[in-house]
Write a structure and sequence with these properties.
The two termini are about 20 Å apart. This protein is an alpha/beta fold. The radius of gyration is 20 Å and the shape is globular. It has helices spanning about 5-30, 35-50, 60-70, 70-85, 90-95, 110-125, 140-160, 170-175, 205-215, 260-275, 280-290, 300-305; strands at about 100-105, 135-140, 190-195, 220-225, 240-250, 310-315. It has one domain (about 5-320). It contains twelve helices and six strands. Strands 2-1-3-4-6-5 form a six-stranded mixed beta sheet, with helices on one face. Helices cover about 50% and strands about 15% of the residues. Bound molecules: S-adenosylmethionine.
Length: about 325
Protein backbone atom coordinates (compact mmCIF):
# COMPACT_ATOMS: atom_id res chain seq x y z
CA UNK A 1 0.00 0.00 0.00
CA UNK A 2 1.28 3.46 -0.69
CA UNK A 3 1.75 5.95 2.11
CA UNK A 4 -1.49 7.78 1.50
CA UNK A 5 -3.56 4.60 1.62
CA UNK A 6 -1.78 3.45 4.76
CA UNK A 7 -2.48 6.76 6.42
CA UNK A 8 -6.15 6.55 5.43
CA UNK A 9 -6.45 2.97 6.74
CA UNK A 10 -4.78 4.04 9.99
CA UNK A 11 -7.14 6.96 10.39
CA UNK A 12 -10.23 4.85 9.64
CA UNK A 13 -9.16 2.08 11.98
CA UNK A 14 -8.32 4.54 14.75
CA UNK A 15 -11.83 5.97 14.45
CA UNK A 16 -13.57 2.61 14.07
CA UNK A 17 -11.88 1.03 17.10
CA UNK A 18 -12.44 4.21 19.12
CA UNK A 19 -16.16 4.15 18.40
CA UNK A 20 -16.39 0.52 19.48
CA UNK A 21 -14.29 0.77 22.65
CA UNK A 22 -16.03 3.96 23.77
CA UNK A 23 -19.41 2.35 23.58
CA UNK A 24 -18.12 -0.89 25.20
CA UNK A 25 -16.61 1.11 28.06
CA UNK A 26 -19.85 3.02 28.63
CA UNK A 27 -21.74 -0.28 28.88
CA UNK A 28 -19.15 -1.88 31.13
CA UNK A 29 -19.19 1.09 33.51
CA UNK A 30 -22.95 1.21 33.74
CA UNK A 31 -24.15 0.44 37.29
CA UNK A 32 -20.62 0.33 38.72
CA UNK A 33 -19.06 2.68 41.24
CA UNK A 34 -15.93 4.65 40.28
CA UNK A 35 -13.84 2.36 42.49
CA UNK A 36 -15.23 -0.79 40.90
CA UNK A 37 -14.45 0.56 37.44
CA UNK A 38 -10.88 1.44 38.44
CA UNK A 39 -10.43 -2.07 39.86
CA UNK A 40 -11.65 -3.67 36.62
CA UNK A 41 -9.29 -1.57 34.51
CA UNK A 42 -6.42 -2.47 36.82
CA UNK A 43 -7.30 -6.17 36.62
CA UNK A 44 -7.27 -6.08 32.81
CA UNK A 45 -3.88 -4.38 32.79
CA UNK A 46 -2.42 -6.95 35.16
CA UNK A 47 -3.77 -9.73 32.92
CA UNK A 48 -1.83 -8.30 29.94
CA UNK A 49 1.31 -7.83 32.02
CA UNK A 50 1.08 -11.50 33.04
CA UNK A 51 0.61 -12.48 29.41
CA UNK A 52 4.24 -11.58 28.87
CA UNK A 53 5.14 -14.25 31.41
CA UNK A 54 3.07 -16.80 29.54
CA UNK A 55 -0.12 -16.63 31.60
CA UNK A 56 -3.27 -16.52 29.50
CA UNK A 57 -5.66 -13.62 30.12
CA UNK A 58 -9.34 -14.38 30.66
CA UNK A 59 -10.35 -12.40 27.57
CA UNK A 60 -13.55 -11.33 29.27
CA UNK A 61 -15.40 -8.12 28.31
CA UNK A 62 -12.98 -5.76 30.07
CA UNK A 63 -9.93 -7.47 28.68
CA UNK A 64 -11.42 -7.67 25.17
CA UNK A 65 -12.11 -3.92 25.28
CA UNK A 66 -8.56 -3.23 26.35
CA UNK A 67 -7.15 -5.66 23.77
CA UNK A 68 -8.96 -3.77 21.03
CA UNK A 69 -7.68 -0.39 22.21
CA UNK A 70 -4.09 -1.51 22.64
CA UNK A 71 -3.08 -4.66 20.73
CA UNK A 72 -5.48 -4.96 17.80
CA UNK A 73 -3.61 -2.60 15.48
CA UNK A 74 -0.23 -4.24 16.04
CA UNK A 75 -1.74 -7.68 15.45
CA UNK A 76 -3.27 -6.57 12.18
CA UNK A 77 0.17 -5.29 11.22
CA UNK A 78 1.71 -8.61 12.23
CA UNK A 79 -0.77 -10.61 10.12
CA UNK A 80 -0.43 -8.30 7.12
CA UNK A 81 3.39 -8.20 7.31
CA UNK A 82 3.55 -11.96 7.63
CA UNK A 83 1.21 -12.57 4.69
CA UNK A 84 3.51 -10.40 2.67
CA UNK A 85 6.40 -12.78 3.47
CA UNK A 86 4.65 -15.60 1.66
CA UNK A 87 5.76 -15.64 -1.98
CA UNK A 88 3.03 -14.92 -4.53
CA UNK A 89 3.11 -18.40 -6.09
CA UNK A 90 2.10 -19.87 -2.72
CA UNK A 91 -0.18 -17.04 -1.76
CA UNK A 92 -3.63 -17.02 -3.38
CA UNK A 93 -4.28 -13.48 -2.19
CA UNK A 94 -1.29 -12.18 -4.08
CA UNK A 95 -1.55 -14.36 -7.19
CA UNK A 96 -5.31 -14.72 -7.55
CA UNK A 97 -4.84 -18.17 -9.14
CA UNK A 98 -6.50 -20.20 -6.41
CA UNK A 99 -9.26 -19.66 -3.92
CA UNK A 100 -8.27 -19.50 -0.30
CA UNK A 101 -9.84 -21.25 2.65
CA UNK A 102 -8.33 -20.19 5.96
CA UNK A 103 -8.99 -21.62 9.38
CA UNK A 104 -8.06 -18.95 11.92
CA UNK A 105 -7.70 -20.63 15.29
CA UNK A 106 -7.78 -18.21 18.26
CA UNK A 107 -8.85 -15.46 15.89
CA UNK A 108 -9.46 -12.93 18.68
CA UNK A 109 -10.81 -9.70 17.19
CA UNK A 110 -10.11 -10.84 13.59
CA UNK A 111 -6.62 -9.42 13.09
CA UNK A 112 -5.94 -12.08 10.41
CA UNK A 113 -9.09 -11.08 8.54
CA UNK A 114 -7.89 -7.46 8.46
CA UNK A 115 -4.43 -8.67 7.37
CA UNK A 116 -6.00 -10.54 4.45
CA UNK A 117 -8.03 -7.49 3.48
CA UNK A 118 -4.91 -5.30 3.40
CA UNK A 119 -2.96 -7.90 1.42
CA UNK A 120 -5.87 -7.93 -1.04
CA UNK A 121 -5.59 -4.16 -1.39
CA UNK A 122 -1.96 -4.64 -2.48
CA UNK A 123 -3.01 -7.26 -5.04
CA UNK A 124 -5.71 -5.05 -6.51
CA UNK A 125 -3.32 -2.10 -6.69
CA UNK A 126 -0.87 -4.29 -8.60
CA UNK A 127 -3.59 -5.33 -11.04
CA UNK A 128 -4.05 -8.92 -9.80
CA UNK A 129 -7.36 -10.73 -9.62
CA UNK A 130 -8.68 -11.42 -6.18
CA UNK A 131 -9.49 -14.98 -5.19
CA UNK A 132 -12.57 -16.09 -3.35
CA UNK A 133 -11.70 -16.19 0.31
CA UNK A 134 -13.35 -18.14 3.04
CA UNK A 135 -12.31 -17.76 6.64
CA UNK A 136 -13.49 -19.87 9.50
CA UNK A 137 -12.66 -17.84 12.61
CA UNK A 138 -12.68 -19.69 15.90
CA UNK A 139 -12.06 -18.44 19.42
CA UNK A 140 -12.87 -19.64 22.89
CA UNK A 141 -13.66 -16.08 24.02
CA UNK A 142 -17.10 -14.81 23.03
CA UNK A 143 -16.21 -11.22 24.12
CA UNK A 144 -13.21 -11.23 21.74
CA UNK A 145 -15.38 -12.48 18.87
CA UNK A 146 -18.08 -9.93 19.70
CA UNK A 147 -15.71 -6.98 19.78
CA UNK A 148 -14.03 -8.23 16.58
CA UNK A 149 -17.38 -8.30 14.76
CA UNK A 150 -18.11 -4.77 15.94
CA UNK A 151 -14.70 -3.45 14.83
CA UNK A 152 -15.06 -5.08 11.42
CA UNK A 153 -18.51 -3.51 10.97
CA UNK A 154 -17.34 -0.11 12.27
CA UNK A 155 -14.34 -0.17 9.90
CA UNK A 156 -16.61 -0.99 6.95
CA UNK A 157 -18.84 1.93 7.91
CA UNK A 158 -15.87 4.25 8.26
CA UNK A 159 -14.20 3.48 4.93
CA UNK A 160 -17.50 3.90 3.15
CA UNK A 161 -17.55 7.58 4.07
CA UNK A 162 -16.23 8.36 0.63
CA UNK A 163 -15.80 12.10 1.08
CA UNK A 164 -13.83 11.60 4.29
CA UNK A 165 -11.60 8.91 2.83
CA UNK A 166 -11.15 9.54 -0.90
CA UNK A 167 -7.78 7.77 -0.71
CA UNK A 168 -9.37 4.46 0.28
CA UNK A 169 -11.02 3.49 -3.01
CA UNK A 170 -8.81 0.36 -3.32
CA UNK A 171 -9.76 -0.67 0.21
CA UNK A 172 -13.46 -0.29 -0.58
CA UNK A 173 -12.95 -2.29 -3.76
CA UNK A 174 -11.08 -5.08 -1.92
CA UNK A 175 -13.78 -5.16 0.74
CA UNK A 176 -16.44 -5.66 -1.92
CA UNK A 177 -14.42 -8.09 -4.01
CA UNK A 178 -13.47 -10.50 -1.28
CA UNK A 179 -16.23 -13.01 -1.01
CA UNK A 180 -16.13 -14.38 2.47
CA UNK A 181 -18.19 -17.43 1.68
CA UNK A 182 -17.71 -21.17 2.05
CA UNK A 183 -15.58 -22.56 -0.75
CA UNK A 184 -15.09 -26.15 -1.72
CA UNK A 185 -13.49 -27.90 -4.55
CA UNK A 186 -10.38 -28.20 -6.61
CA UNK A 187 -7.91 -25.39 -6.78
CA UNK A 188 -8.61 -24.16 -3.27
CA UNK A 189 -5.60 -23.58 -1.05
CA UNK A 190 -6.02 -24.29 2.64
CA UNK A 191 -4.27 -22.38 5.39
CA UNK A 192 -4.24 -23.02 9.09
CA UNK A 193 -3.43 -19.91 11.12
CA UNK A 194 -2.83 -19.46 14.84
CA UNK A 195 -1.54 -16.00 15.57
CA UNK A 196 -0.31 -15.50 19.13
CA UNK A 197 -2.70 -18.09 20.55
CA UNK A 198 -0.22 -20.11 22.58
CA UNK A 199 1.15 -19.12 25.94
CA UNK A 200 3.36 -21.06 28.28
CA UNK A 201 0.17 -22.15 30.03
CA UNK A 202 -1.76 -23.57 27.06
CA UNK A 203 1.03 -24.22 24.53
CA UNK A 204 0.97 -28.02 24.78
CA UNK A 205 -2.80 -28.21 24.38
CA UNK A 206 -2.81 -25.81 21.44
CA UNK A 207 0.07 -27.71 19.78
CA UNK A 208 -1.82 -30.98 20.28
CA UNK A 209 -4.96 -29.51 18.72
CA UNK A 210 -3.11 -28.04 15.75
CA UNK A 211 -1.20 -31.27 15.16
CA UNK A 212 -4.41 -33.27 14.97
CA UNK A 213 -6.02 -30.66 12.71
CA UNK A 214 -2.98 -30.77 10.42
CA UNK A 215 -3.08 -34.56 10.31
CA UNK A 216 -6.76 -34.66 9.40
CA UNK A 217 -6.95 -31.71 7.02
CA UNK A 218 -3.48 -31.46 5.49
CA UNK A 219 -3.44 -27.68 4.96
CA UNK A 220 -1.12 -26.23 2.34
CA UNK A 221 0.35 -23.74 4.75
CA UNK A 222 0.45 -23.54 8.52
CA UNK A 223 1.23 -20.19 10.05
CA UNK A 224 1.87 -19.98 13.77
CA UNK A 225 3.19 -16.99 15.64
CA UNK A 226 4.06 -16.68 19.30
CA UNK A 227 5.28 -13.98 21.59
CA UNK A 228 9.06 -14.40 21.93
CA UNK A 229 8.73 -15.14 25.65
CA UNK A 230 6.46 -18.12 25.01
CA UNK A 231 6.94 -21.78 24.53
CA UNK A 232 7.87 -22.02 20.89
CA UNK A 233 9.31 -25.49 21.27
CA UNK A 234 5.88 -26.96 21.79
CA UNK A 235 5.41 -26.16 18.12
CA UNK A 236 8.25 -28.25 16.79
CA UNK A 237 6.27 -30.94 15.03
CA UNK A 238 7.32 -34.51 14.48
CA UNK A 239 10.66 -34.77 12.80
CA UNK A 240 10.70 -34.35 9.08
CA UNK A 241 7.01 -33.81 8.62
CA UNK A 242 7.14 -30.06 8.56
CA UNK A 243 9.76 -27.49 7.90
CA UNK A 244 10.08 -24.79 10.45
CA UNK A 245 11.28 -21.32 9.89
CA UNK A 246 11.48 -18.59 12.47
CA UNK A 247 11.56 -14.99 11.52
CA UNK A 248 12.36 -12.37 14.04
CA UNK A 249 10.60 -9.21 13.04
CA UNK A 250 12.38 -6.03 13.94
CA UNK A 251 10.46 -2.79 14.23
CA UNK A 252 11.59 -1.80 10.74
CA UNK A 253 10.25 -5.00 9.14
CA UNK A 254 6.63 -4.11 9.84
CA UNK A 255 4.91 -2.75 6.77
CA UNK A 256 2.55 -0.34 8.47
CA UNK A 257 3.76 2.65 10.38
CA UNK A 258 1.92 5.50 12.04
CA UNK A 259 0.24 6.33 15.30
CA UNK A 260 -3.33 6.09 16.48
CA UNK A 261 -3.97 9.44 18.19
CA UNK A 262 -7.62 8.79 19.05
CA UNK A 263 -6.87 5.49 20.77
CA UNK A 264 -3.87 6.96 22.54
CA UNK A 265 -6.14 9.66 23.91
CA UNK A 266 -8.78 7.08 24.83
CA UNK A 267 -6.26 5.19 26.95
CA UNK A 268 -4.87 8.26 28.65
CA UNK A 269 -8.44 9.47 29.36
CA UNK A 270 -9.17 6.06 30.79
CA UNK A 271 -6.43 6.74 33.31
CA UNK A 272 -7.35 10.37 34.00
CA UNK A 273 -11.10 9.86 34.24
CA UNK A 274 -11.57 6.32 35.51
CA UNK A 275 -8.46 5.26 37.38
CA UNK A 276 -6.64 8.22 38.89
CA UNK A 277 -7.41 8.73 42.59
CA UNK A 278 -9.49 5.54 42.76
CA UNK A 279 -6.75 3.01 43.40
CA UNK A 280 -4.00 2.51 45.99
CA UNK A 281 -0.89 4.44 44.97
CA UNK A 282 1.16 1.49 43.76
CA UNK A 283 -1.67 0.23 41.54
CA UNK A 284 -2.29 3.72 40.23
CA UNK A 285 1.38 4.03 39.28
CA UNK A 286 1.22 0.72 37.43
CA UNK A 287 -1.91 1.77 35.53
CA UNK A 288 -0.37 5.15 34.70
CA UNK A 289 2.61 3.47 33.01
CA UNK A 290 0.35 1.28 30.85
CA UNK A 291 -2.25 3.86 29.99
CA UNK A 292 -0.31 7.08 29.72
CA UNK A 293 3.23 6.25 28.66
CA UNK A 294 2.89 4.43 25.37
CA UNK A 295 1.28 5.78 22.25
CA UNK A 296 -0.92 3.39 20.27
CA UNK A 297 0.68 2.60 16.96
CA UNK A 298 0.66 -0.12 14.33
CA UNK A 299 3.57 -1.54 16.26
CA UNK A 300 2.52 -0.79 19.77
CA UNK A 301 5.68 -1.39 21.70
CA UNK A 302 9.04 -3.14 21.80
CA UNK A 303 7.63 -6.48 22.84
CA UNK A 304 5.37 -6.79 19.84
CA UNK A 305 8.05 -5.83 17.38
CA UNK A 306 10.28 -8.65 18.52
CA UNK A 307 7.83 -11.48 18.03
CA UNK A 308 8.87 -14.75 16.50
CA UNK A 309 7.05 -16.18 13.57
CA UNK A 310 7.09 -19.88 12.91
CA UNK A 311 6.02 -20.66 9.41
CA UNK A 312 5.51 -24.26 8.54
CA UNK A 313 4.52 -25.97 5.41
CA UNK A 314 3.65 -29.61 5.19
CA UNK A 315 6.42 -31.21 3.32
CA UNK A 316 7.91 -34.59 2.66
CA UNK A 317 11.31 -35.38 4.11
CA UNK A 318 13.23 -34.91 0.91
CA UNK A 319 12.18 -31.40 -0.03
CA UNK A 320 13.59 -29.88 3.09
CA UNK A 321 15.50 -27.29 1.09
CA UNK A 322 12.73 -25.98 -1.08
CA UNK A 323 11.11 -23.79 1.51
CA UNK A 324 10.58 -20.51 -0.28
CA UNK A 325 10.84 -18.21 2.71
C1 LIG B 1 -3.42 -12.77 21.98
S1 LIG B 1 -5.00 -13.18 21.38
C2 LIG B 1 -4.63 -13.24 19.66
C3 LIG B 1 -5.85 -13.07 18.83
C4 LIG B 1 -5.60 -12.97 17.34
N1 LIG B 1 -5.14 -14.24 16.80
C5 LIG B 1 -4.66 -11.85 17.02
O1 LIG B 1 -3.58 -12.12 16.44
O2 LIG B 1 -4.98 -10.70 17.33
C6 LIG B 1 -5.18 -14.91 21.77
C7 LIG B 1 -6.55 -15.45 21.46
O3 LIG B 1 -6.48 -16.88 21.51
C8 LIG B 1 -7.69 -17.34 22.06
N2 LIG B 1 -7.47 -18.70 22.58
C9 LIG B 1 -6.56 -19.10 23.50
N3 LIG B 1 -6.67 -20.43 23.70
C10 LIG B 1 -7.65 -20.87 22.89
C11 LIG B 1 -8.23 -22.15 22.63
N4 LIG B 1 -7.83 -23.25 23.27
N5 LIG B 1 -9.22 -22.24 21.72
C12 LIG B 1 -9.66 -21.14 21.06
N6 LIG B 1 -9.15 -19.91 21.26
C13 LIG B 1 -8.16 -19.77 22.16
C14 LIG B 1 -8.03 -16.32 23.13
O4 LIG B 1 -9.39 -16.34 23.49
C15 LIG B 1 -7.63 -15.02 22.43
O5 LIG B 1 -8.67 -14.43 21.73
Amino acid sequence: MNRRTTQGVTRALDKAILNVVESELAQLCSGKTAKEVAKEVYRALVAYRDLQDGVMPLYDEWEAMYYAAWYQSSHINLAYTLLNEIPPDRNPIRSGHHNLQAFDFGCGAFAALFGILLAAVDSLTEGENLPKVSIVSVDSSEPMLAIGRKIWAAFAKEINKIREYPELSAVRQAFRALEFSPIQGKGTRHWLCAFHVAYEENANKVAEYLTSKIASERPDLVIVTTHPGNKRNAFCPEQGQYIKREIRLGEDSFLLKGTFPLLTKFRSDLFDLKVKSHLPEEQEQFARIYLRNYPSAWVTNRFESQCFLNLRRISSNNDIDDLPF
